[in-house]
Every structure is written in C-alpha cells, then in structure tokens.
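Record type: ASSEMBLY
Status: queued
Input:
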Amino acid sequence: MKKTYLYWLLLPGLLFLAVFMIIPIVLTIGSTLFKEGSFTFAGYLQFFKDPYFLKILLTTLEVSVASTLLSVLLGFPVAYYISQKAPRRKGVLLALAIFPLLTSPVVRSFSWMVILGRKGLINNALIWLGIVDKPLEILYTPVAMMIGMLHLFLPMMIISLVGVLENIDSDLITAAQSLGASRVKAFRKVVFPLAMPGLIIGGILVFVGSLTAYTTPALLGGKQRVISTFLYQNAMTLNDWFSASVIATIMIAITFVVVGLMNKLSNKLNPKG
Amino acid sequence: MRNKHIGLGLFSLLVYIFLLGPLLIISATSFEPGTVLKFPPSGFSLQWYQNIFKVELFPQTFKTSIVISLLGNLLALLLGVPAAYALSRFSFRGKDTLNAIFLSPVLIPGIVLGFTMLKYLIVVYHLPIYTGLLIGHTVIMLPFIIRVIGSSLSSFDFAIEEAALSLGAGPLRTFFKVVLPNIRSGIIAAVLIAFLESFNNVDISLFMTGPGISTLPIQMLTYVENYFDPTIAAISMLLMILTAVLMFVIERLMGLSYFTKR
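Status: finished
Output:
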C-alpha cells in the first residue's frame, strides 16, 4: 500500500519537470551535436576558434572570479562579526543582508546605473572634489558589471558563512589561544577549517550566479557582452538558435563542472564528509 | 580584543553601506521633481509615482506578474506538496536522486531554462505564450516550495499521523486534518518565498513575451533602455516596500534560519 502511494505522490511533479524542463534541455543539448543530419562537434569547434566568443568567455570568467574573491574578502569578516552578536542584533543584521537578496535584480542593477553613470554620484563627487575634470567611464565596463555582481551576490556569501560560523563554539578559539596559539593562528587553524563548508557553498552560489546572471550585465555592461547576454543576443536578436543552443550547452557544462569540482574539494577538506 | 571588534564593526558598517546605500539612493531619487534622475534630488515631488499609472504598460504588466506568480504558485503547490510529503515521509531507494531532480531548476542557469522553454514549449509543443510563461514560472517555484515545505515536514512528528490513521481516519482526511494544519506556517512561508522568486524573475519571462504579454521586470528593463527618468526609481521604491512586508511575514512565520541553512 505504502509503495503505490509513493508513486502517485511523486509522479505529477516528476512528469511536469520531465516534459517542461528535462526534455527541452536534453533535446537542446542533442541538437548541438547534429548539423545537416550528421553527428559533429563543428558547432563547438567553431565557437572555440572564434576570438570574439573567447573574449566574451574570458570577460565572463574574469568578472565571476573577481566578484567571488571579493565576496569572500568582504563577506568573511562581516559574517564573523554577525555570528559573534547576541541573537537579537544578529537577527537584525541578517535581515539587513537578506533584504537586498529578495529585492528585484532590476532594481538593484538600476541603482548602480544612477551611481556609476557619467553624471552619476561617483563622477559628480570626483569632479566636485577636483580629483578628475572629466567624468570617468565606469558604467558599461567590466568593472561596473563586477560591482553589480558583487552587490547582487555578496549577501549569499554572508548568509552561507553565518550559517557555519554561528555553530563554532567560541570556547574552541579561547582554548586554542590558552594553549599558546596566537589569535591569527587560532583563526587559521580553528575557525577557518570549520567555516570551509559555508565558504564552498557561498563560493558556488556567487561564482555560478555571476557566471549566469543576465540582468546585471545587460544593464551595466552596455556593449560589453558576457555569455548570458550573448546567448540572448543569438537567440532573440540574431535568431541563430543553433549558436544559442551551443552557448546554452557550454553554460550548463561550466556550471556542472564548477559545482562538481567544488563539491569534490569540500569532500576532501571535510574528513567527516 | 575590544579594539579588534571596533575595527571589525567599522568594516562591517562599510560593507552594509555598500549593500544598502544604493537602495537608499534609488529611494531618494524617486522624489525628484525634475525630469532627470539625480542624487541628491533637487526637491520633493510625487509626480513620478503618478507617472507609473500614466504609462499603461506598468499597471498592465504588474497585473500579469501578479496573476502568473499566484497561479504558478498554486500549480507548484499542487505538484510540490505531495512530492515534499513523499520525500520526507518515506525512505526508499533513489530518494536522493529524486530530491536532486526536484531541486534542479535552481541549478540550471536561468537564461538557459528560458531559452530551452521558448524553443520547446512555444515552438515545438505549440503552447500559447501565456501558458508557457505560467509553466516556466511554475518550474522555477517548485524547488522553493519543496525545500521550504520539506524542512517544515522534517520537524513534524509523524507519530501523530500514525495515531490518526490507526484511529480510523482515511489517509486524505488525515493529511488535511492532521498534517496540513501542523505545517501551515511552513506552507505560507514557502508560498511567499516562491512568490518573490517568480515576481522578480527576468530570465524566463525575457523569452516569453508576446503581443500584450510581458511581466513587470521585463517592462522595467525595456523602459530603462529608452528613458532615464525617475519613474523606475518610483517603481523600485514600491517594490522594495512590498519586499520588506513579505520578508517581515516570512521572518514571523519561520525565522530567517531558512536562508542561512542550505
């Protein structure tokens, strides 16, 4: 009796996902391997020989790596600070970090257009202070995209790290120090290894998020393309669905490789896992 | 020790300014009386809030966004609640794989989901664009419904259910009278989180636009490409108020620990 129930409970959702998500993706990937009826990798070879595409791929990776590293540098101290607070203050600080995460990415990217534009806040301030006499070109550059991505995904890093840091017993740090470890050493040998799972999950979320985000590069990148805006351009502006499918497959492949590698790393670092 | 904490506190304050400052700036610019977005605003006016309703596409796409998010939510609940129940109630072979499949829509890049759905739902399956939009949003809401309700069910004591069953209540009756009331707050929180996810979605909606069909975020993107007046700032302000209210309710219902435990 139990078994038949089980299938009827799971089947509708599974069928729905199979028909509307899994089949479209599998067939899209399949379609990239056939051109004029015969099996070929030509679609991919053509892409990886194209300097324009390689440049887009490189920009995407640069922006994603930079925003991931910066999110660790900015996020770790903040997460540590939050985790040391009493529950009430911790709740408020967490809420303030989660709020931007739930706010529309269009709103968040748009706010940076106001700040980074030629007549934006930063340029006005720099000119007023006499540091520059012509507005700097910040908006529509990879730097603008990187700032937007960092703003978009930093909260994910912070809350992933708070999740692990708040479980670290502060007695452990005191114990390490009373046994003669310096504060830095106690941090490196006790806090850091225990925070590793949160760091890896946060890293996956920020890196994959930046790698695949559309709204931020579309608004802040101008003519600078990243892989997601390139996919959209091929699919909707150029109507080249074969190329769009190849890009889609490359994006899925990169995502799965990154997630797989990070999980492997996390298993290696976590002896219990 | 004290000193270190002052440094850390100062650093954290700067990071919070980075996170929240842009949102405060955009709120302030929404009251600009002139036609160009400026910070600080040159005065105070509500004219751009009125302008939201004058540009017909804003109220119209807002309505589409709300209807799609609510209908999609309902569909995701119908598909997701039974699945979440089965996944936390029973242990069986292949459970981890099934769990991974149900959560996979968050792992696939959104822009890829949107494109493949356009390619198959609209072009191959010949579904109307509106239906495609609804299905796409249901797919992306499903993982949130399953994860939040699943975590709610994991703290439910199934012995209570056994008791009701052994006292002669049918399985459906038991589910609706015993299980469901116990996970009510989890369900409401799941609905709200999924709602925000769908309401803010760009990646799927981008590919599912047609004559008279578009969602608010897409309309905002299109507007920004053509105009740089404070209308978008005014909409942003309203959206942030909506987000804050929903977040407050989520916090009341199940705390914020859902966000930190992944």
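Annotation: The radius of gyration of chain A is 23 Å.
Annotation: Residues 50-269 of chain A form a domain with the MetI-like fold fold (CATH 1.10.3720.10).
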